[in-house]
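Reviewers of the previous submission asked for a worked example of the structure-prediction workflow described in the proposal, so we include one complete record here. The input consisted solely of the amino acid sequence. No template or homolog information was supplied to the procedure at any stage.
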Amino acid sequence: MLKVDLVIFSFNSYFFLLICNTLKVIDFQLDLAYKMRMNKSYFLFLLVILCSFPLIQAQEGTKKVIDSLYLDLVIQKADTNRINTAIALVTELSLNGNHEKAIGIIQDNIGLSKKLNFDKGTASLLYVSGNCNADLENFHLALDDYNSSITYYEKIGNHTGVAYIKNNAGIIHRKLGNYSESIKHFLESIKYFEEIDFKVGASYGYASIGRTYNQVGELEQALKYTLKGYAVTKEIGDDLGVFHSAMFLAEIYVKIKDNQRALLYLKEAIQLARKENDKSFLGQVSERMGRLYIELGDFEKADNYLNQALGIFRRLKLPSSEISVLNGIAELHLKSEAFEEAEKVLTRANLMINDGTEKIIAIENYELMALLYDLSDDAKNALLWYKKKDSLKSMTFNEVEMEKIYQIQSQYELEKAEEVFQEEKAETDKEIQKQKTIIIVLIVLASAILIVAFFIYRSRKNKIAYTKLIDTQATELAESNKVKDRLFSIVAHDLKNSIFSISGVLNLLNDGALSSDEFNDLLPELTSNTNNTSLMLVNLLNWSKSQMKALDPKPISFNFKEIADEKENFFRSLATAKGVTLINETSDSNILADRDMVDIVVQNLMANAVKFCRKGDKVILSTKEENQNVTICIKDTGIGISKSNVNNLFKENSFTTIGTENEKGTGLGLVICKELVEINHGSIKVESTEGKGSTFCVTLPQK
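From that input alone, the workflow returned the following structure tokens.
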């Protein structure tokens, strides 16, 4: 069944009283994984469907309403009134959990609706069928129903219906691990909602996208969209939307180690859950509170909250939610070193996993299983579960999938920009047409054939020039977006971990969660991280300039030994910390090149040399003059580079590997070095033996 990140839409009380006279009045219960209940609250989309139905006399009790509809269906003729009654009946059955009966009635009537060419009825029947199959966890059947329903809704121009179905389909794709398809459907849904200026629907879409990015670990994007949705729900006073947004925000802040903010949002969520008196909401908050207290080290509170959530989800018969809570309880047992209890809980949860279980929950279970056996020194079983986890993870999410998500996101933004461009173009065309009309009137009044010919000639010339201008602008826009997309992808992948790490430490310090001694212990790592991030930014800046042809060397004559001495001092502390010896064998050698660019090249090569050295290794910086050139060599005795990787070093494919102490890089350093050296009329080469070390040599013109 669908995981709840839908927002329930309540009608204005005055408007509700107006429709109560013509529509049946019951308490709808929509089973979207958390059995969300709201007295006298309805989906706006449900109103769109029901407003086309024949009037039904209000009845007391759901059973009487259903019995009455059954009777009407039996006696009615095979016309559109029968289809409307069938839609009302299957909607009632679906909302009360009788999904199989609803699907049976839909199958009996869908053929008649199509035969009558009753597109509105066919769309509604398929939509309800999709909801029923989704609740029954028949996800692929649900997607087929939704796709068919969209065809008919688009045919009758009902974009509100299309928007809701796109959201529902996005949720199912996320459950199936199709994250790029999920993002695509959510963005399309938001586009429809924004067209009709429906803020509630847009907030729903923002929350759904935020949850998807959260599941794939793109926390920066997840936080961006979830905060957007949270702000809208606050603005329109949608308590249920605020609840779900607060829950997602708490989950994200836990992941980025900002537990205090997470606790604030959870407290807001639990107040809303109590206000709505909804057990499923209380179960969700209890699970999240339990997991947060595990992070905070308060195992007693964590145990109380998790067991409270487990009881709620079992009573509501929500298997995916129950598995998730069991994973949390197992994690608590592992941290308490109660390995036998952890194994029992994980085994129970594992037996419940099936094709309908969210992939993210199954992955967590496999990972905890592997950790259990790892801590129990059972390497064989640990490896088995790690392989299962990696296999499922590779099926649901990989770098290719992430690239698809970025492409979809970029395409969406490009389309929005194109819409604005087309609107401006239409206004320009309109103005041009107006001017042409005035010119034609003047030509007729003047009755001058020569003037007519002249203005026609000019009009054609202007039109050609205008067309060329539009083509040029379109080409420039496409090229600009290509550069933007490349920069965005690199920044997202390479800088986010460093920024989050620095931000996390600073937030802890700001919140008083770190003592002075603890901060001093973290200071060397923080300083190193800051230096690495600074180098990343310098590399990214120079790379982006090179892509836009903005690098402009300013060659001067300078003594290279000055740079060598500066770099020796700069890397001394880092090398000493790793147990690496720096040796400076350079001599006074004048070079004719851009000094800043040479500085960047040496900085990158020295950083790489130290990065791939082990304790006891050496890094030697030397120079040699010959044939009016100076050759600068950085030699190390580190781990070296394999032959297969040597060929990838200077290619623009963001190639990078992890250092001897897990140091990370942007993968652009050597690409930048090559470009900077070559625009200064020099060359760079590398020699390396795996396990013995590497030597990078840069040759530049001498004064």
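The chain has 27 helices and nine strands. We consider this example representative of the routine output the project will generate in years two and three.
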